[in-house]
Amino acid sequence: MAWIYLFVAGLLEIGWAIGLKYTDGFTRIVPTTLTIASMVASVLLLGLALRELPVGTGYAVWTGIGTVGTAILGIALFGEPATAARLACIALIVSGIAGLKFLA
Hints:
Blueprint: H1 2-22, H2 29-49, H3 55-78, H4 84-103
């Protein structure tokens, strides 16, 4: 169950990271409310996951999911560059997440 909590927490981290762009400096009420709710839920689920997982593994996987998802959505939603080097770096993060999952 801890890995499920961690995965959902990572997805929520992507949500609040992307949500920050839509808050317009926390001046728009709906995006701000959704972003803050995602932040709180993400950290709460991370905390639940860390009851069973090592903190180093849990935190690294949580931030890795958030990093990869945010980078991919940045490319898809905001036209950020999708260079070969950038995609290779994203692939390295994914391989690191997978390694931590299988070694934990």
